[in-house]
Design goal:
The chain is α/β, with parallel strands linked by helices. The chain contains 25 helices and 8 strands. The strands form 2 sheets. Strands 2-3-1-4-5-7 form a 6-stranded mixed beta sheet, with helices on both faces.
Amino acid sequence: MKATPLLRLRAHPLRIALIGNPNVGKSVVFGRLTGRYATVSNYPGTTVTITKGRAMVGAEMCDVIDTPGVNALEGVLSEDERITREMLVDGGAEMVVQIADARNLRRALLLTSQLADFKRPMILVLNMLDEARARGVDIDSEALAECLGIPVIEAVATEGRGMSELRAALPVAAIPRAARDAGIDHLHWADGTAARFRTIGTVTLGRFQEWLGRAVRQPLTGLPILALVLYVTYLFVGVLGAQTLVGALENVVFGGYINPAATALTAHIPIAVARDFLTGQYGLITMGLTYSIAIVLPVVTTFFLVFGFFEDSGYIPRLAIFADRLFRSMGLNGKAVLPMVLGLGCDTMATMTTRILGTPKERLIAITLIALGVPCSAQLATIMGILGGISVWALLTLFAVVLMQMVIVGFLAARALPGDRSDFILELPPIRMPRLRNLLTKTGLRVKWYLGEAVPLFLIGTALLFLMDRLGALAWLTSAARPIVTGALGLPSDAAQVFVMGFLRRDYGAAGLFTMAHDGSLTGLQAVVALTVMTLFVPCVANLLMIIKERGLRVGVAILTFVTIVAISTGTVLNTILRVLHVTF
């Protein structure tokens, strides 16, 4: 194969697209080539936008593009597949590096034959070769390269194996021979080629992994396993994070050292407004940093750790199959589990991830349900911290009410909105023990995101509350909300202010409820009602902007209005029922 002229002198960096089926390791290869970390998880749909980075190839700098996973580039396409196809058609990619799952050569070659039609120089990377060999799959990569007319690289990207060979092969990328065969039948060609160059021998995959992979999908065993997963999450996040770590940070570090020291220092400031701005009731230090660092950061960090573990284990796609029947009643299918679970980390990212769903109707229903009832990591951790300290029944009551509301809304939306439901096709990755390095790296980057994105928003929110308090606007809003909060919801009058804070940002409101609960201002019943309403309450500003971006201003305003009405109505009914039944938790 001759060196491609694409690596000679150019007016702009060579654009190399990493393309492949979902969950084949594109983002791992991207990170190895560019040094940038893209989110890597053991389930499809992790990459939902195009990510760009730069890599040195010889003496030349190249642009490397990480694309969403695709199953096809012709026929009826999903939104992700359309994005990738348009990039190829419009010339956004001048070279293609196809990342393939070596365990499923036939599927990879089907995509190879479609990529060949775009007549771009290509390289095929057979990734996860170690897992393929564990399953008894052996591929003659040299003969396959000769057949295709392009370099074929054997790789285990998570360990860095094959990356130097990939860099060395970039100058000799070539247009596949399949592109020169007019009228090729892609499926027939993929079947025949895979059969010629793949042999299957003895499978060495562990029996326990096989049993566990089946068990989590079956109703009889899947439900107890799900209960165990939730219980482990509760212990790790609700007990270790929200009680032990928060107690140490809030009471010892901030309560015993930081806040007293800050108050002593600001006492020398002659301007009272400036003192209050830093260490008053709505001070940047005493409220903004205490809420964001002492209360929310520990629970967010522990949640990111446990969430990353289940991400990388391969459990989440199996949960999608397990929950498919439930989601079908809501006009969706099991694939909607993926954005819903991502919403437990960040609702904004989850809203973006709804692009993996097949129809506009499914995307609209999923976005509405995420805005309505999926708490973000900070909010979920706060819920576990408050209700976990009251009783497990309080926690189960909240989740049951929220789930019931989501099912009812989804059921009605499925029948009221026009459109069809897409087919549910999802490849199952292997059950595997997560790699500690990837888990810690992912958690560290998510914590870095929280510190860089969420903490400044907490400080801005605190400054806004301080300004509203000084201007009297906070008192007016609190007074306007008090009849609903104290009357319909049966909460203390101070909770009205917390809900105003929650309107600015839900996790800020949840942190306010956390403080009220620890101060003894809320009974068990009031805590359940307040947190239920806060969970169903308006989406945060970032998520609202993402909804408007994805669906338009009119839909965004409609969803905002709808979820607010549902939240208040549900809280009113729940408060009435619990009081009539004399439930105290």
